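tool=predict chain=A
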Amino acid sequence: METPARSRRIENIRKILTPVIIFTFVLSIISLFLEQAEIDSPFIGVFTNAVDFTLAFFILLELIFELISAPYKGIWLKNNLASTLFSAAFLILFTYNKYVEFVIQPDLESGFQIAGLIVVRNFFMLFKVFGRIRRISALLNNLTIHPAQTLVLSFLMVILVGTFFLMLPVTTVDGSGLNFIDALFTTTSAVCVTGLIVVDTATHFTLLGQAGILILIQIGGLGIMILSYSAAWALRRSFSLQDKLLISYMTNEDDLNRVSRSLLQIITLTFSIEALGALWLFFSFFSEGMALGKSAWFAVFHSVSAFCNAGFALFSDSLEGFAGNIPVNLGVAFLIICGGLSFAVMMDLMKIPGKLRPFSGRAGISGKRGLQLQLNTRVVLLVNLILLTAGVLIFYGLEYRNSLSAEPVGRQYLLAFFQTVTLRTAGFNTMNFASLGSAALMLSLFLMIIGGASGSTAGGMKVNTVAVVFSYLKSRLTGRDRVRIFEYTLTRNTSSNALVLFIFAVSTIFAGVFFLSISEEQPFQDIVFEVVSAFATVGVSRGITSGLSTPGRLIISILMFMGRIGPLTLLTALAGRRVNDGVYYPETDILIG
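tool=predict ok
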């Protein structure tokens, strides 16, 4: 019979066992890095084997402990059948792995059996530990209460799974798979829809590897949680209140009763635009003499990559070979712009029947005058229009005697237009950015830092943030106490969040440039360009990405992750719950300026 004392002992043991297993899992990730780093030291082999045996021991210990502590063994086995089978499969795989390594000792130079076992073994470790974490009710409740933390951890989990996938031999043409650092970098770039690459996507990966990257891009563009809940909705599963809170956080939907409908609209809109884009690009590629099957695959890949603002291309020179192809340029640019507007803006545009008067009168008024656009939509459209128009004209004015001088006038404007669009976090390019002059380089940095709209597949500080910061500065210069946009007064919380985002973005870029300057011996302007491109999840480069050192690649990977998650989400996830200790100190002033 279960006694209170015995229950407390079991719970205490469980509290000790769980962090030990998680700590061992962290060590296993470190050992995986060391295995792939090609460091010639006997210590590495001893360390990795010690970690492997330790993890296997604690997984077996956990399984035995849970079975013994269960008051009803049959019910426990029934409720934990999947977890038990998973643990058994891991232990069998572990035993076979060590048998092959120590007894059979295959020739590592002639085969990849051990490498394959290492990758599969780490797949089991990853899912086993995450399965353990999901059974900790306190942590799970904390995650559902804080959607930002759920979002951060979901992206991390997808990146880890994608990293192990790209290490599989079947994903690369040479049959060896990527090493851990390159796989981590490529997966982070895909999930964070950036487009920076250390190996050529067109020639280095097999069809399976390219398909895996495409799936990672789609997951990163829509978000793993949106796809997960969409699948649940398709299976007619009901959503709990915590589920709806999480979805509303990701979709910016305030009305919880409309969450399911908003989710369906986002998925339908995404796949519809990608399908139309793929159809357009298919005919564009096919008309250039590309084979039918290749045209279809390239059309799908580039349509998803463009809409998600990822910038991954199946051409070694990105889209430089299509610099003068108007259909390809316009098709890709249209997809980039749509992806950078945000789902909220596109759905708001779809609600407007009849007349559109986005910049006159108060938004949200209905009646005979018809529906009008929301303030967020009006701001996004206006700022995008200003940036696109001014960007094309300024880019052309700066480069028509430099990098564009050898092109006819029509192509010069087409090149200026496409570069202005893609620099807003898409990552494709139809010209070499290393040929840009200093002034055009500064314009490129400006466009990259601003990025797309909040809630879109684009990165950067977001046009919404820039609009709020500009309005704040305008209100201070004109002596107003309130921040106004059009006929509306913004809340102090919105203004303070925008300033926090601005400061965080500038600080992160500064730190990235500082650390990358230490790890790399590259021209300073190339380092700045690379850091801004990574943090803004743009993906364009001046040609230094593939030459980055291991620390440099890790720095860029961190910047891409921070840029995709978003500073506000990241800060919210790290902050946790707000604490009001009830203590108020006297106010005073300090000299500034």
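Residues 506 and 532 are 10 Å apart (CA to CA). The beta strands are 484-485, 488-489.
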